[in-house]
Specification:
With 225 residues, the chain is mainly α. The protein folds into 3 domains: 50 residues, Arc Repressor Mutant, subunit A, CATH 1.10.10; 110 residues, Tetracycline Repressor, domain 2; 34 residues. The chain is built from 12 helices and 2 strands. It has a two-stranded antiparallel ribbon. Helix 1 packs across helix 4 and helix 5 packs parallel to helix 8. One of its GO terms (molecular function) is DNA-binding transcription factor activity. InterPro entries: Homeodomain-like_sf, HTH-type_TetR-like_transc_reg, HTH_TetR, Repressor_TetR_C, Tet_transcr_reg_TetR, Tet_transcr_reg_TetR-rel_C_sf. This is TetR family transcriptional regulator. One of its GO terms (biological process) is response to antibiotic. Keywords: DNA-binding, Repressor, Transcription, Transcription regulation.
């Protein structure tokens, strides 16, 4: 989506769409997506809300801009000499890295339409890899959608993913609840109380999730090919 690039001289900062979007992403990272409002951003940037409306018609327009910016951060580069599964791992790994840096904003990628050049380039690359993996156009589209949904859920649903003290309290309450279940009725839930309520090894969690996703895609390609 094209945005007006006029520089708004506020005496404190010069506003561009990029300035506002980066501030919105930072706010979402620290306080959650619900904290992102035009009024709050204006306060943080030291401007009036009207200064932001010059660049964004409303909050929906701002959220679309945040999604576009996330796509811009994803590296679409893959080694064309690699087998298609390795190319897919490279691209999805890059997507996961970016989503991990903006966990509160990640779910927007599955719920909002993105039509920026960056999003189109990423989608084109993903579909091309899947087509060369033997999927039909319809199948490639379905796989791409499920892959994006899986990555966003992997990030947003990570145990203990709430922010700050809320995260620690939520983890504690979840762990205590699971540990208090009758072990004769729920032995597996009781023994998994810690991994179900917190993530002790984030790197291992995300690596396993990506491996599982890729294994499923490759198995499907063999079955349908």
């Amino acid at each position: 989506m094209e945005r007006r690039e006029r520089m708004a001289d506020t005496g404190k900062t010069s506003l561009t769409p990029r300035t506002v979007i980066e501030a919105a992403l930072s706010l979402a990272d620290s306080e959650g997506l619900g904290a992102v409002t035009i009024r709050r951003l204006a306060t943080d940037l030291g401007v009036t809300p009207m200064a932001l409306y010059w660049h964004f018609r409303n909050k929906d327009d701002l959220l679309d801009g945040m999604v576009d910016r996330i796509f811009e951060k994803i590296d679409p580069t893959v080694r064309t000499s690699d087998p298609w599964p390795e190319q897919l791992r490279t691209l999805l790994g890059s997507m996961l890295d970016v989503l991990r840096s903006h966990p509160s904003t990640a779910p927007l990628l599955s719920t909002r339409s993105a039509t920026s050049e960056s999003s189109l380039r990423i989608t084109e690359t993903l579909l091309d890899i899947l087509r060369r993996g033997g999927f039909s156009p319809t199948e490639a589209t379905q796989v791409a959608r499920h892959a994006l949904s899986t990555l966003t859920n992997l990030v947003s649903a990570m145990p203990g993913s709430a922010l700050g003290e809320e995260s620690e309290d939520a983890q504690r309450r979840a762990r205590v609840f699971l540990e208090s279940l009758p072990p004769e009725r729920y032995p597996r839930l009781v023994e998994a109380a810690v991994p179900l309520s917190e993530c002790e090894d984030p790197e291992g969690y995300f690596a396993f999730g990506l491996d599982l996703l890729l294994a499923g895609i490759e198995a499907t390609a063999r079955r349908t090919g």
